[in-house]
Backbone:
């Protein structure tokens, strides 16, 4: 388990991370979410022990981070790139050895992962000869070659086609089942919603919301319905029950006032308009993200 | 330690294989050979052809004697080196003679033309016209001849014994020898020693520039791809820096080793005289220390750079500093105690090259060698420390190039 308590990082006068706490449980994926420049990278760098926090503590499996910590942590940075002119296997051995593997183990693990990700044929090619997607796979292998117990992945899915995305997703899920601690930082809310059990949403260096995703959704205010309307659209001022309405081509998403029972509203609606679809919806993480960040920036 | 070695090995192997390294390995010896063999070809051998020199001597007093004097210079095949032609035709005035001479020079019919003014008086003056101003050897010989004739004529006029005259005329040749530290006297071949030191300086400069550029380029690659973050989540920045410096130094030593082999074979082939390597031990020390100094400097500076252009600028400035001794060479040769040279031989940036130069032009005391070694080693230590501090922050700062003020802040942190 990784515990971060009251993390603060100041650069000169700017406060990059302001009092952030988080708890990552093993066997679960933790989503570190937030807009660009929110402080995600700084948070990750302090967890990685790349930069020293101004204050706060980082504890992994009961111990504060030390030098040994380097060997059990795996990190995939957001920007991708490798030593272009070097051979795939050489690069993987190098990163393996830097994680304290001996050369033989590094070769074995490299071969194992190359095979598992279906790119064993590129083993002795130079990196620049590989497609972009395959280069990213190599970098992913470089991040996990030493079988880390704490894995930090920054936007692991960008740049992959759907098939490769699925492969990477399966790989991450296999780590989850092995009980590893995983932090996922991403902008892809649909993926975060599917993969993460706990999240921390940060903006301007501070936590906006955190905790179990299901709880967050529940607390976000859930009186949302989706209706498909034949013919004309409805507007907010026709119905006092509606707080907010988003109209799309085929359907409309409607947020009702908290005290309104959705089925009662449906009855009222049917009396006036022809309805061909009705469902109760949870707020998507995407919606929570946008709404909370907007609210947060209005407050500032 | 294992990780440091891994970094060193990686940096070494990946760079040894690059084209840039292999090219530098080949190009540099070619430059050495050009620099060491060419001057000895140019300076030692007499031009193998007979040179035609026109003489305008309206008085007619000097011409015959000049021919006699210049006949003393022979080519290797015992032919005369100079053939003097009398341009003082009776039917033309002085101006016309000059024009004829100019035309002949222009058409390459004659090498040059000597014009004597006021010949016959005590105050004779002369002019040598030719296409190039650089022919010091001919001018020197003509001067010598004129002076000798002038002396002879004056003495004859004063009625001095002809035997005495030939005694006066006899030239004294000063042979140059050099005294080394052990008090032994050796016949110095000044030009070769001088060029050897210039070669060493050039070698050092090229090595620093090449390896420096390679290093900075790979750091830019690591920074722009954020590979650096994967690296320093595996290893501390200090370890990474140490590994890089070790790898780079090994790279430098490989280069020195290969060049030494080439150098030894050149000596063995008697292309470069062994005497030129009198100071080889301290020279090698300055060379290696200088390389280490600049490598550690480059690692620090390199970490602040984000683009190739910035890297190029920095390497250009540094190579200019390394070139400094070549600019100072002439005053330093004329006066080895020249104060500016002395000052530069105590500034870490210029110690290696200036001392390599000084070792070969004048004797440098053992104390000075000791002091400069100490300064250099001490500054390598300091620069590595500072570089480590800059490196730690520099590798994580992207975007704009940091200002000097910011870098200063990093050092203080």
Residues:
């Amino acid at each position: 388990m990784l515990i971060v308590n009251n993390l603060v990082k100041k650069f000169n006068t700017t406060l990059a991370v302001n009092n952030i706490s988080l708890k990552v449980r093993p066997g679960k994926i933790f989503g570190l979410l937030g807009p660009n420049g929110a402080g995600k990278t700084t948070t990750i760098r302090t967890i990685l022990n790349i930069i020293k926090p101004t204050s706060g503590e980082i504890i992994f499996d009961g111990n504060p981070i030390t030098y040994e910590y380097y060997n059990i942590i795996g990190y995939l940075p957001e920007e991708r790139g490798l030593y272009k002119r070097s051979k795939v296997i050489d690069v993987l051995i190098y990163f393996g050895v830097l994680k304290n593997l001996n050369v033989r183990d590094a070769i074995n693990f490299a071969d194992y992962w190359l095979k598992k990700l279906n790119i064993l044929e590129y083993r002795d090619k130079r990196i620049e000869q590989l497609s972009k997607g395959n280069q990213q796979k190599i970098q992913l292998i470089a991040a996990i070659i030493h079988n880390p117990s704490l894995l930090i992945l920054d936007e692991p899915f960008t740049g992959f086609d759907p098939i490769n995305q699925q492969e990477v997703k399966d790989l991450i899920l296999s780590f989850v089942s092995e009980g590893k601690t995983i932090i996922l930082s991403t902008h892809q809310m649909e993926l975060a919603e599917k993969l993460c059990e706990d999240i921390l949403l940060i903006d301007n260096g501070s936590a906006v919301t955190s905790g179990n995703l299901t709880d967050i959704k529940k607390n976000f205010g859930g009186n949302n319905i989706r209706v498909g309307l034949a013919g004309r659209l409805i507007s907010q001022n026709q119905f006092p029950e509606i707080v907010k309405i988003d109209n799309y081509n085929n359907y409309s998403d409607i947020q009702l006032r908290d005290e309104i029972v959705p089925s009662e509203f449906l009855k009222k609606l049917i009396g006036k308009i022809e309805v061909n679809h009705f469902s109760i919806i949870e707020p998507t993480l995407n919606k929570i993200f946008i709404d909370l960040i907007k609210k947060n920036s209005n407050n500032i | 330690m294992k990780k440091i070695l891994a970094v060193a090995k990686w940096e070494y192997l990946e760079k040894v294989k690059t084209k840039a390294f292999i090219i530098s390995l080949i190009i540099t010896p070619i430059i050495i050979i050009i620099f060491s063999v060419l001057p000895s070809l140019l300076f030692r051998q007499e031009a193998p052809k007979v040179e035609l020199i026109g003489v305008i001597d309206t008085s007619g007093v000097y011409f015959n004697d000049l021919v006699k004097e210049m006949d003393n210079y022979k080519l290797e095949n015992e032919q005369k080196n100079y053939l003097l032609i009398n341009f003082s035709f009776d039917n033309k005035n002085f101006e016309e003679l000059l024009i004829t001479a100019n035309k002949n020079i222009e058409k390459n019919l004659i090498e040059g033309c000597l014009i004597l003014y006021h010949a016959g008086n005590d105050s004779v003056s002369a002019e040598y016209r030719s296409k190039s101003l650089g022919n010091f050897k001919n001018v020197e010989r003509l001067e010598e001849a004129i002076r000798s004739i002038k002396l002879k004529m004056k003495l004859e006029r004063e009625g001095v014994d002809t035997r005495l005259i030939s005694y006066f005329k006899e030239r004294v040749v000063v042979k140059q020898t050099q005294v080394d530290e052990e008090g032994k006297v050796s016949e110095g071949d000044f030009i070769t020693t001088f060029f050897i030191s210039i070669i060493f300086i050039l070698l050092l400069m090229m090595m620093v520039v090449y390896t420096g550029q390679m290093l900075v380029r790979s750091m830019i690659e690591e920074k722009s791809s954020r590979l650096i973050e994967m690296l320093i989540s595996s290893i501390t920045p200090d370890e990474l820096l140490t590994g890089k410096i070790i790898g780079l130094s090994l790279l430098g030593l490989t280069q020195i080793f290969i060049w030494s082999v080439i150098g030894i074979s050149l000596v063995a082939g008697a292309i470069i005289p062994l005497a030129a390597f009198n100071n080889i031990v301290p020279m090698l020390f300055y060379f290696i220390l200088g390389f280490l100094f600049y490598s550690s400097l480059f690692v620090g500076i390199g970490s602040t750079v984000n683009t190739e252009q910035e890297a190029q600028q920095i390497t250009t400035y540094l190579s200019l500093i390394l070139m400094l001794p070549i600019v100072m060479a002439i005053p330093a040769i004329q006066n080895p105690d020249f104060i500016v040279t002395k000052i530069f031989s105590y500034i870490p940036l210029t110690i290696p090259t200036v001392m390599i130069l000084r070792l070969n032009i004048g004797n440098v005391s053992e104390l000075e060698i000791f002091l400069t070694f100490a300064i250099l080693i001490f500054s390598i230590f300091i620069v590595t420390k500072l570089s480590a501090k800059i490196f730690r922050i520099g590798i994580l700062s992207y975007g704009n190039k940091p200002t000097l003020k910011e870098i200063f802040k990093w050092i203080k942190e």
The mean pLDDT of chain A is 86. Chain A has two domains: 2-217, 223-281. The longest strand of chain A covers residues 14-24. Chain A touches chain B through 31 residues (CB under 8 Å).
